[in-house]
């Protein structure tokens, strides 16, 4: 079961036949750690390619050892937090078995957790703990580290949730290589809309999810040495914009405020610079530097111990030589008092030399203490300056916010004035339009009145003309009647003179018409004979009559 689970977690094909063949001749009972290690190295670990989930592998190892080794006493942290502390221990521990974490790495880890909780670091308290630890052993095991953090000795006043969040933040940074994470807005490539995403920055990739539970992953931004990040001006109602340029795509992102924007730009730029330089992540590089520093200090300490041993050997040799000289002097005391005096003088000189060397060492130590005090004073001044700069930065931010609010108020008043001016302009234009309409109406009324007056004058003139024509027609009618009477008399005379004349006279409805050459146009016949008026004259009379009728109406 153990081999099969290891192969599953490490993405290695499991070979049960090889397992049976390897342990075929082992009939001595349960397999020990030493007996299982050859099979583990040969058939499992040598086949690992590195494409496995390290967190799942750590969780399996934790399942195998936690129940047996985890303390039974109640802790202030959950089992999940204890697992994360155990994984961090495996990352920070020394590369030798049995695994321990040295006091320097314990201090580093506790500082990270304290900073994540937002509390102050108790250096004096840890110094006392470090002294007590160094007197008994070199470091702590994984289970002792879990007990130390779970006891709350360095997290007094903090609740379980705060401690859990701090452990999770340190776990994300050291184990999952999370350099920075947080909510920001991202502009889509197709729909061009802005969506809130949870961004996670790692050494070579930026992943973004729907929320911080990391369940629904929406995409990745692959980082390399060719990528760059640039700040953008505010546009389309979005502020705190910056741009990530890659070889194939460009991503527009909006942070929540200017501070977050600057932090993200610096973090991404630092990551790209590390990729260009081929350097490991910052926490791994810092761990390697701390390890190299410890090795250097250890080498210096060993060198110092070697020198001390050499000095001690030389001192013992000198003491032996002095003892030999003393014996020789005692043996030769009888020979010469002057030689005894020289020997005493030589001994005094040696003592003076040792005293001078001791004084010199004291002076050197005093100078070093003074330098340390001076450095501490400079550090305190630097920290005071940093605090002053932070206070100035806060005041500057407040002033900027006030100025921003004042500009917004000014813009609001300006928009109100512009709106009032537009309304006044619209009303003025409407009044002018009404005025023009009134003038046009008045002009149209005058024009219609003038036109009616002209029509009346024309109708009066036409009536006068028609009256004149009527009088003329009356005169013509009288003349025509006189002519008709003359013609009638002539016809009666002709009828009496000849009988055949009657045959030539045609009677039609009591009308008498003389046969005479006429025009080609048709003649109008009345009951008295030919009409007294022509067709044109009748049409003119009809038009005159209609004009009079319309004028009377």
UniProtKB/TrEMBL annotation:
One of its GO terms (molecular function) is DNA binding. Its main location: membrane. The keyword Coiled coil applies. The keyword Phosphoprotein applies. One of its GO terms (cellular component) is plasma membrane. SMART domains: PH. Residues 283-504 form a coiled coil. Residues 177-273 form the PH domain. It is found in: Cell membrane; Cell projection, Lamellipodium; Cytoplasm; Nucleus. This is Switch-associated protein 70. Keywords: Cell membrane, Cell projection, Coiled coil, Cytoplasm, DNA-binding, Membrane, Nucleus, Phosphoprotein. It holds the Pfam family EF-hand_SWAP70_N. Phosphatidylinositol 3,4,5-trisphosphate-dependent guanine nucleotide exchange factor (GEF) which, independently of RAS, transduces signals from tyrosine kinase receptors to RAC. It also mediates signaling of membrane ruffling. Regulates the actin cytoskeleton as an effector or adapter protein in response to agonist stimulated phosphatidylinositol (3,4)-bisphosphate production and cell protrusion. The SWAP complex consists of NPM1, NCL, PARP1 and SWAP70. InterPro entries: EF-hand_SWAP70_N, PH-like_dom_sf, PH_domain, PH_SWAP70. PROSITE patterns: PH_DOMAIN.
């Amino acid at each position: 079961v153990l081999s099969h689970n290891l192969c599953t977690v490490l993405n290695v094909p499991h070979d049960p036949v090889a397992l049976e063949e390897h342990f075929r001749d082992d009939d001595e009972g349960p397999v020990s750690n030493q007996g299982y290690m050859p099979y583990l190295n040969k058939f499992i670990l040598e086949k690992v390619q590195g494409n496995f989930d390290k967190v799942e592998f750590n969780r399996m190892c934790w399942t195998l050892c936690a129940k047996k080794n985890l303390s039974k006493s109640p802790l202030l942290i959950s089992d999940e937090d204890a697992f994360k502390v155990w994984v961090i221990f495996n990352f920070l521990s020394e590369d030798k078995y049995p695994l321990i974490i040295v006091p320097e790495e314990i201090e580093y880890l506790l500082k990270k957790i304290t900073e994540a909780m937002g509390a102050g670091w108790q250096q004096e308290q840890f110094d006392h703990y470090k002294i007590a630890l160094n007197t008994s052993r070199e470091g702590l095991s994984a289970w002792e580290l879990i007990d130390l953090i779970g006891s709350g000795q360095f997290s007094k006043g903090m609740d379980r949730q705060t401690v859990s969040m701090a452990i999770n933040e340190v776990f994300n940074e050291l184990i999952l290589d999370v350099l920075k994470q947080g909510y920001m807005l991202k502009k889509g490539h197709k729909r061009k809309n802005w969506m809130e995403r949870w961004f996670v920055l790692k050494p070579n990739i930026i992943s973004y999810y729907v929320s911080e539970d990391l369940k629904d992953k929406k995409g990745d931004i692959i980082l390399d040495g060719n990528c760059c990040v640039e700040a953008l001006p505010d546009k389309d109602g979005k502020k705190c914009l910056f741009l990530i340029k890659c070889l194939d795509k460009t991503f527009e992102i909006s942070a929540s405020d200017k501070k977050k924007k600057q932090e993200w730009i610096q973090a991404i730029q630092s990551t790209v610079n590390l990729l260009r330089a081929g350097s490991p992540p910052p926490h791994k590089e810092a761990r390697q530097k701390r390890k190299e520093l410890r090795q250097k200090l250890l080498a210096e300490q060993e060198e110092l111990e070697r020198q001390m041993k050499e000095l001690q050997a030389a001192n013992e040799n000198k003491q032996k030589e002095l003892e030999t000289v003393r014996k020789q002097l005692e043996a030769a005391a009888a020979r010469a008092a002057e030689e005894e005096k020289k020997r005493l003088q030589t001994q005094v000189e040696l003592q003076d030399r040792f005293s001078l060397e001791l004084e010199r060492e004291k002076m050197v130590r005093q100078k070093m203490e003074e330098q340390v005090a001076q450095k501490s004073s400079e550090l305190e001044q630097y920290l005071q300056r940093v605090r002053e700069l932070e206070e100035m930065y806060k005041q500057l931010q407040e002033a900027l916010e006030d100025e921003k609010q004042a500009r917004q108020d000014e813009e609001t008043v300006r928009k109100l004035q512009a709106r009032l001016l537009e309304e006044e302009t619209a009303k003025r234009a409407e009044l002018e339009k009404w005025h023009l309409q009134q003038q046009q109406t008045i002009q149209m009324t005058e024009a219609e009145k003038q036109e009616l007056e002209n029509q009346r004058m024309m109708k009066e003139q036409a009536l006068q003309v028609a009256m004149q024509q009527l009088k003329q027609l009356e005169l013509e009618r009288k003349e025509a009647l006189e002519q008709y009477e003359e013609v009638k008399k002539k016809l009666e005379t002709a009828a009496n003179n000849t009988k055949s004349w009657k045959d030539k006279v045609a009677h039609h409805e009591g009308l008498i018409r003389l046969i005479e050459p006429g025009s080609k146009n048709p003649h109008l016949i009345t009951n008295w004979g030919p009409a007294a008026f022509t067709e044109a004259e009748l049409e003119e009379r009809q038009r005159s009559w209609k004009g009079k009728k319309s004028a009377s109406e």
